[in-house]
């Protein structure tokens, strides 16, 4: 392909050079320079008396021609500068080989040349013939922008070690599992108040992890372990622009570490929490799994009490508790204004006696280190005092992340609060799948031979004549699925916010247009149809040129929810149209609310039919199908257990209950330590 492109590129370069040099040469030779000195007073008076003369018109045209040429030259120069800047940025990101790698490469090259000198030339094997639909050039990967750096995740407002980011993503997944567990299907009305998306910073972390491969375990950074290893015994003070951001990072990483290491505990003061979280400290602080002391005297008592308890959050007042578990780790956060010199001295003594990690956000009577804004600590007494990079967060990012690991707010949600509206998938002209009768076999959904068929239930794929089309960019695949779930379309801002959450829109518009242009061109080349329409800055799938399985499911659900005859046939049509969850193989953050809303619509129909079914056997089969769709829902299992009990099969009911508890335990939903996490996000 390079041999074909370079003549065209050379001709383009020659054309641009001719376009830049020809106009000034022609103007200088035929007319001369646009201005030959300033006009005299006599010439100015003549121009005022008679402005429209042949000479003045010729001069105006000459100046206009020179201005047009200057605009063209400016445009070309700016394009060259942008291309040079992009090339420079790419070269800076290009990983250079280490000396060991360079030596190994040189030795391998020498060995290859030494072997091939006397080797016979053989024809390379021919690659297998590929399908014309699936055959695509391998594209460059989507640029993750500023989402990933080294072994951490960059978000708007901070940086997280990858280990902490992965634990936060796991906590976010548990939030949705708890929402699934706690949802109560209702035949007539559905409560979707808990379908609010997770905070933007959480979505940014999920998106960054979804688009980047997991590095080797040796490259991951554990913020808490790294902190304990570098800080001196007795505590340390942190000063500099990174003191408060590192303090917030410690707060988040210590609390999220409790899910994996329940022996980690965090003790802080009201003043320190207010310095870190600002206005959110009062409402969010009481919901966090940490211990808050009103004064340093109380904090010292809590530190000693925690030395005899594995978890001061739940048993901090037990003076007769058994000795703490091996490996129990206490982290103490203080504010610069907490207590006087004597109280601080008692804190130092308590931390040394209990091996607690004390961090003061400000000056400290002991060692005081400088914290930079990137998350690095600098010991002034060492020439090379840089430790590992620690988590840094601003108030907004820290509050977002702490929300998913907070206890539920005891205050009930305001019924007047407007509910978030979720898009309903559905073609403008939904077509019901052909219903099978009892006397004819059920047919599989028909895949059209002409229009492309977009399958988004399960593993997303675009099928053309039954063959999957290779979509080269992950962002392009997201666009297809997003538009399938938003039949009314989406504008540029909605697409960029969904695909690249947490990144500034101004830096993403070009990436979105590139992905869209590549996607539309690939589909058009494969089938000759314009699948994506663009009208008034809104993109939408053209229902006349593409068929979507989600639209068939939506039509089947509507039919099953409204029909009063042949309900079993309508229910079976829903099951046939729902082979798997929406984009089940993908972890894009924007999917969760839509995926759960779709699942809930099916569960509502399931419970409605089971409630109205007089036959207990048929009712149990309906509920069993619903459990296969959502094995985490508690209400479905209660209904199924009651149906089995009504049938007199108490042993099967007990077995169903035990299996359900095991399912929750394997998913981490029923783990005792995870009960501290909020099942819903209170907005």
Automatic annotation (TrEMBL):
Q: Which GO terms describe its biological process?
A: regulation of DNA-templated transcription
**Protein's UniProt keywords contain Secreted:** no
From the UniProt entry, list the residue stretches annotated as the region Disordered: 119-158, 406-447
Q: Does the keyword Oxidoreductase apply?
A: no
Q: Which keywords belong to this entry? A: Membrane, Transcription, Transcription regulation, Transmembrane, Transmembrane helix
Q: Pfam families, per this entry?
A: BTAD
GO MF terms on file?
A: DNA binding
Gene3D superfamilies cross-referenced by the UniProt entry:
Tetratricopeptide repeat domain, Winged helix-like DNA-binding domain superfamily/Winged helix DNA-binding domain
The protein depicted here goes by the name Bacterial transcriptional activator domain-containing protein
The portions of this protein that span the membrane are: 61-82
In this chain the Bacterial transcriptional activator domain maps to: 548-682
């Amino acid at each position: 392909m390079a041999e074909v492109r370079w003549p065209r590129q050379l001709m383009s370069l020659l054309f641009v050079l001719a376009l830049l040099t020809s106009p000034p040469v022609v103007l200088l030779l035929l007319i001369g320079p646009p201005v030959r000195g300033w006009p005299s007073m006599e010439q100015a008076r003549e121009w005022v008396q008679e402005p429209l003369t042949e000479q003045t018109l010729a001069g105006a045209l000459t100046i206009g021609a020179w201005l047009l040429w200057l605009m063209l030259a400016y445009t070309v120069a700016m394009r060259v500068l942008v291309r040079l800047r992009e090339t420079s940025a790419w070269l800076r990101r290009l990983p250079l080989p280490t000396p060991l790698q360079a030596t190994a490469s040189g030795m391998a090259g020498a060995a290859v040349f030494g072997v091939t000198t006397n080797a016979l030339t053989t024809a390379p094997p021919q690659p297998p013939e590929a399908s014309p639909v699936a055959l695509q050039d391998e594209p460059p990967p989507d640029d993750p922008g500023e989402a990933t750096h080294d072994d951490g995740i960059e978000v708007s407002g901070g940086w997280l070690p990858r280990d902490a980011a992965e634990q936060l993503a796991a906590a976010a997944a548990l939030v949705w599992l708890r929402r699934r567990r706690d949802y109560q299907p209702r035949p007539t009305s559905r409560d979707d108040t808990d379908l609010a998306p997770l905070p933007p910073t959480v979505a940014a972390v999920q998106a960054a992890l979804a688009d980047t491969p997991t590095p080797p375990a040796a490259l991951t950074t554990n913020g808490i372990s790294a902190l304990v290893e570098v800080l001196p015994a007795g505590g340390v003070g942190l000063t500099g622009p990174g003191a408060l951001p590192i303090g917030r990072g410690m707060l988040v990483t210590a609390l999220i570490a409790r899910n994996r290491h329940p022996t980690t505990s965090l003790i802080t003061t009201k003043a320190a929490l207010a310095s870190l979280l600002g206005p959110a400290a009062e409402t969010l602080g009481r919901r966090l799994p940490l211990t808050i002391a009103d004064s340093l005297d109380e904090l010292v008592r809590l530190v000693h009490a925690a030395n005899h308890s594995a978890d001061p959050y739940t048993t901090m007042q037990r003076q007769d508790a058994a000795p703490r578990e091996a490996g129990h780790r206490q982290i103490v956060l203080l504010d610069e204004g907490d207590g006087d010199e004597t109280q601080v001295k008692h804190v130092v003594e308590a931390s040394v006696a209990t091996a607690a990690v004390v961090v003061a956000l400000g000056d400290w009577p002991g060692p005081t280190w400088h914290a930079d804004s990137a998350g690095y600590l600098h010991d002034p007494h060492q020439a090379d005092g840089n430790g590992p990079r620690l988590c840094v967060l601003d108030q907004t990012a820290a509050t977002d992340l702490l929300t998913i690991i907070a206890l539920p707010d005891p205050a009930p949600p305001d019924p007047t609060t407007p509910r978030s509206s979720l898009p309903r998938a559905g073609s403008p002209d939904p077509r019901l799948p052909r219903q099978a009768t009892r006397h004819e076999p059920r047919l599989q959904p028909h895949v059209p031979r002409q229009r492309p068929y977009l399958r988004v239930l399960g593993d997303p794929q675009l099928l053309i004549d039954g063959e999957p089309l290779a979509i080269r960019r992950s962002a392009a695949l997201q666009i297809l699925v997003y538009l399938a779930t938003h039949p009314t379309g989406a504008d540029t801002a909605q697409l960029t916010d969904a695909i690249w959450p947490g990144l500034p829109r101004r830096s993403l518009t070009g990436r979105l247009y590139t992905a869209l242009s590549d996607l539309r061109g690939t589909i058009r080349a494969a089938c000759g149809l314009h699948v994506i329409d663009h009208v008034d800055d809104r993109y939408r799938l053209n229902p006349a040129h593409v068929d979507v399985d989600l639209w068939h499911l939506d039509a089947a659900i509507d039919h099953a929810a409204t029909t009063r005859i042949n309900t079993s046939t309508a229910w079976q049509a829903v099951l046939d149209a729902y082979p798997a969850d929406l984009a089940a193989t993908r972890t894009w953050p924007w999917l969760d609310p839509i995926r759960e809303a779709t699942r809930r619509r099916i569960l509502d129909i399931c419970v409605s039919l089971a409630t109205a079914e007089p036959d207990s056997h048929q009712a149990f089969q309906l509920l069993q199908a619903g459990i296969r769709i959502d094995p985490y829902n508690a209400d479905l299992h209660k209904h199924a257990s009651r149906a089995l009990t009504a049938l007199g099969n108490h042993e099967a009911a007990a077995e169903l209950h035990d299996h359900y508890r095991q399912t929750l335990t394997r998913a981490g939903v029923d783990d005792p330590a995870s009960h501290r996490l909020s099942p819903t996000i209170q907005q």
